Amino acid sequence: MNGLTHIYCGDGKGKTTAAVGLGVRACGCGKRVLMVQFLKGSGSGELTALKQLENFSVMPTVSTVKFTFQMNKKELEETAVLCGNLFCKAAAAAKSGECDLLILDEIFATIRCGLLDNGMLTDFIKNKPQNLELVLTGRDPKPEVLELADYISEIRKVKHPFDRNIPARRGIEF
């Protein structure tokens, strides 16, 4: 079976949730899933549940992450190195056959913020293992990436509590 490339993008809530749901489905069918979360801390509620699934691995990330607009130049440089390392480790794991499905969560944010080169991502998509199912999430994917995708689901915000100054709630938004 040929692996395809999925994109969950847009400004709405649920991109990660959709990617995790696909990963859980794949895991339930015996596939090995690897998820890498860029620019997210390790405190998300889904991570606790996913640890209980034998074939679902989450690549370790930092424990807390500031928003990029809160970072100084040195922190942005350090974050760029971290994102580059995470991407390279994920790509190596995929190429060595360690996973059947790879989720790169918030990969588009790393590109939009200049922390990862879009060319690295497009090269990976073009040269990914033939059977690898690849899931990419985040806002504003570049046209070159959209062109390479097999599935594109746009999740659009119509209304969100954040617009009324209601902060993110544990177990719902993170």
From TrEMBL:
<dbReference type="InterPro" id="IPR027417">
    <property type="entry name" value="P-loop_NTPase"/>
</dbReference>
<protein>
    <submittedName>
        <fullName>Cob(I)yrinic acid a,c-diamide adenosyltransferase</fullName>
    </submittedName>
</protein>
<dbReference type="InterPro" id="IPR003724">
    <property type="entry name" value="CblAdoTrfase_CobA"/>
</dbReference>
<dbReference type="Pfam" id="PF02572">
    <property type="entry name" value="CobA_CobO_BtuR"/>
</dbReference>
